[in-house]
Amino acid sequence: MSDLGLPTYVLTEIDSPVRETRLTAVDELTRLAGGADLAMAAAARRALESLTEDDSRSVSAAAAAALERTALRLRPDRVDFGQVAPGTPRVVADVLVDGPPLAIATATVTVSGPGLRAMLAGRQLRVLWQPRSEWLDGSVTVRGPAGWAEVRVTGEVAVAAPPMTRTGVEAQMRAVNGLSTYGPPRVTVLPPPRERSHRVGAAALIASLTALVLLGGVGVAWALVNDGSGGPTGALADPPPTSGPGTLLGTAQAGDAPAPVTTITQEQLAHRIASVARPAVVGTIPVGDEPEGIAVSPDSQTIYVANQHSHVLSIVDAGTRKVTPVTLRDTPRFVAVSRDGRQVFVSMYEDDKSGSGVAVLDAAARKVDHYLATGKQPYALSVSPEGQVWVPIHSAGRIEIYTAGQQQKVGQITVPPNPHAIGYAGDLMRAFTANHESNVVAVIDMRSDKLFKSVPVSKSPHSLAVSPDGRRVLVAGYDADAADLIDTVTLKRTGPFKVGNEPQSVAWAADSDHGYVVNEGDNTVSVVEGSTGKVTATVPVGHSPRTVAVSPDGRFAYVSNGADDTISVLRVGE
Q: Which backbone phi and psi does 205 adopt, to 5 degrees?
C-alpha cells in the first residue's frame, strides 16, 4: 500500500510478505494512531483498517484490536438523572470522552430527546436536561475521526418532589432575582455494562484529513434538540483529561425489573489533573520586546504572546520552546484563541490609541488573515462559548461583539467605564466584565446582550476570570492589592483577599480548585484557594509580570514578564 502520511519504514513493514513483520507494523501503527500528530494518526488508522483485510488472521485480528484501542469511547455510556422535582429548571452530568487525540479531533455532537442539550469541551461532555415532559429517554452521540460512541440519557419528573439526599454530590437548586438556575447537581450515573466504540471508514478519515492537518486545538461544540431533533456541531481537539473520583448511586429505571442500588465510581473530569497548592517555576522562555497579553491554544501545544513594544506576536511551541515571530500592522496588546484553535485574535493600538483594531491570524499558517476595525483601545478580548469574539473597548465603555469566521460586527453593549476583561458562565448565559475606573464587575445577560447588574469590588478591577466549572469569578483589584470572588449564580461577592502588590491579571486552574493572581508590583504570582480565597503560595517570577494563562490540559501556567522579555513556565497541575 502507499500512504505519504506514514514513515517509509512503516510502509515497508506493511508491504512485507513476512507475517511477523506486518505484526510489527501493527504495533507501530497503534503507537502512531495514539499520537498527537493528527494527520499521522489518521494515516495510521487508515493503514490499520486496510490491515484488517490481511490474508493472515493474526494480522487482521491484531489490526482490528488496535483500531478498538485507539477508538473514541464515552465513560459512562449511560446517565440516569432519576426523579427530579416538578419545576426543576435543569440538571447536569459530566461524561469522560476517552481515547487518543485523534478520537475527538473535529468531533461533532448530536442529541435526541426533549429538553436535552450537550456541550463538548475537549474531553468533557456535559449533558444538560431541561425537563419538558414527564419522561426522558434520549441519547447523546459523539462522532469523530476515530469512531463514534453514544450515551443513553434517562430521567423523569416526579409527581411529588423527592426528599433531598446526598449521594456524593449535593442536590440543590437556587433561584436568583427571579431567574431559576442550578447549583451543584445530584447526578445519578449507571455503570456501563461494557465500553462501546465504533470505527469509522477510511472514506470518513480521508474526508477529514485536511481539517486535521489544519487543526490547531480544541473547541467547544453545543448540540441542542427540540422535542427529539438534533444536529451536529463544530470541530474539537484535545486537552488531556482532568479528574478525581466521586461516589454516586445508581437507580433502576421505571418500567424495568427492580434492581439493587449499587455504588459506583464516577470520574469528575475537572479533577483528573489536580492543581497543586504550591506551583513551581520550571522554565523561562525568551520572547519579544515587553510581553503583555498571553494565551494558550486549546490543545495546550502553542503559546501566543503579544509584545507591546514592537509589532510582533511571538508564537511559542510549548514542547520545543521554539519561538516564531509574526509581524503585525500595529502594536499587539492582548491575545485570544478561537474555540477550535484555528484562529488567533490580537487586540492592537499604539500609545496614542491610533491603529486600534484586532488582527485575525490563521493559526495553522501563522500569518494574518485580516484585520478588524474597532473602537479605540481594544483591551483583553475573549471568545464566548458560542464562538463570538467579544472586544472590550477601554476608551468608550462598551463591548463590541463579532461573529465567528469572518468576524462581522453584530452588536455592542454599554458597560461602566472602563472595561478591561471578559469572562463567561456559559450555562447561566452570563458574561462578566472588569470595569477598571468604576470599581465594579458588570454582569451581562447573554440572551439579550443587556447589562443585568453591577457588583462592587475592590478598587481598580484590572482583570477577571470565570472558573472552568462556571461557579466563581476571580477579580484582581489593582489599586487595592487584593482579589475578590463572586458567585456566578447569587452574584454575592466575598473578599477582599490580600494578595501581592498591584495585581494585574488572574486565571484559574483547569480543575477550578485554585486561582492565580499576577502581582506586577512585587514580581510574584499569588496562588489562592478557589473556594475560600486563601493564599496558599506566593511564587516569584520575572520582573514586571503582566498576564497569566493556564494551558487547558491543566499542567502549566505561563506568565509574561514585561521587563525581562520572557515568559515564566509554572507547573501547576499533576
A: -65, -40
Terminal C-alpha separation, the chain: 42
Cα–Cα distance, 537 to 500 (Å, whole number): 11
Are both 341 and 484 inside the same structural domain? Answer: no
- Structural domains counted in the chain: 4
Map residue 452 onto helix, strand or coil: strand
Question: Pick from 495, 414, 426, 430: which is nearest to 461 by CA?
Answer: 495
- How is residue 448 annotated by DSSP? T
Clarify whether residues 263 and 296 are in a common domain.
no
* CATH number of the CATH domain containing 251: 2.60.40.10
Q: Tell which residue, 469, 467, 502, has the closest CA to residue 483.
A: 502
* CA–CA–CA angle 570, 274, 499 (5° rounding): 55
pLDDT tens per residue across all 574 residues of the chain = 445 578 888 898 899 999 989 999 998 998 898 888 888 888 898 899 999 999 999 899 999 888 888 888 888 888 888 888 888 888 888 888 888 888 777 788 888 888 888 888 778 888 988 887 788 888 999 888 888 888 899 988 887 544 444 333 333 333 333 333 333 333 433 333 333 333 334 333 433 333 333 333 333 333 443 333 333 333 332 333 333 332 232 333 333 333 333 333 333 333 357 899 999 999 999 999 999 999 999 889 999 999 999 999 999 999 899 999 999 999 999 999 998 889 999 999 999 999 999 999 999 999 999 999 999 999 999 999 888 999 999 999 999 999 987 788 999 999 999 999 999 987 788 999 999 999 999 999 998 899 999 999 999 999 999 998 888 999 999 999 999 999 998 999 999 999 999 999 999 999 899 999 999 999 999 999 999 999 999 999 999 999 999 998 899 999 999 999 999 999 999 8
Closest CA to 427 of 182, 216, 211: 182
Q: Are strands 220-224 and 179-182 parallel, antiparallel or unpaired?
A: unpaired
Residue 352 lies in a domain: yes
Same-domain status, 489 and 381: no
CB neighbour list of residue 357: distance below 8 Å, 6 or more residues apart: 329, 330, 347, 348, 349, 371, 372, 373, 374, 378
Decide if 400 is inside a domain: no
Instruction: HSE, CB side, 13 Å, CA atoms: give it for residue 177.
Output: 9
For 373, counting Cβ atoms within 10 Å of its Cβ (0-12 exposed, 13-18 middle, 19+ buried), the class is: exposed
Looking at this protein, which amino acid is placed at residue 340? Answer: D
185 and 304 part of one domain? no
Q: Please indicate, yes or no, if residue 91 is contained in any of the structural domains.
A: yes
Contact between 79 and 151 under an 8 Å Cβ cutoff? The reply is yes
Backbone angles phi, psi at 155, to 5 degrees: 175, 170
Closest CA to 527 of 208, 278, 308, 333: 278
What residue numbers bound the domain in which 306 lies? 292-392
